[in-house]
Amino acid sequence: MSNGLVHIIGAGPGDPELITLKGLARLRESDVVFHDETVHPDVLAHARPGAEIVRIEETITENPSLLDSLNKEIVARARAGRTVAVVQEGDPFIFGLGGEIARAVRRAGIPFDIVPGITSAIAAAAYAGIPLTYRGYSSTLGFATGHTDLNKKYTDIDWARVATGVSTLVFFMGLTNLPMIVENMIAHGRDPRTPAAVVSCGTSAEQETLCGTLAELAELAKKDALHVKVPAIIIIGDVVGLRDELNWFEK
To answer: Structurally, how many domains does the chain consist of?
Structure first.
């Protein structure tokens, strides 16, 4: 029996209408669909009738053995001649599992393709009325993870470079660590008066955006904890100041 193939698909950030046409086409042709817990049910509704649907546990990123088991399950189904879709929220190559899964599949000799998705950093910012680049405001952009132990002695975040190296900086999954993000940014040279925002539940009907200066953002989020919730992105940069004029989604 010849091998099947694996489609690694980005589902977009929350609004189910933001998945690409190619993503939907690959989903509809798949015999097996592995999906993040956070993928919208309306996206999964496009799976072909009778397809096997397998949920990927949210804790998988914190447990290497679970990721290894997932990769083995994907490879086993593809080796059985089935077409497998792995559907990830946002873009699978930006703080997703796409890279790890693709390497495992390639090493197993299984053909695969990648269908990019709209990452939450871009989509949530757009829905909040915050252009991540804008002439005269920002010509450089960086992404960083906030889902790490920011107090550990050795971290892969170079704070000196991150704090001042780009005009606009977006942190993924950083709400819990927001106080430490603010502290490190200011300590390494970012102006505490820099406009900043937290966008919660981006592109969904529950989206909420909180704005302030970098120095005050963590305290503002703490005071408004009822509305500032995960999933969330943090945007730091002068472009946040354009939201007052460009907000179109939140009423």
So the answer is: 2
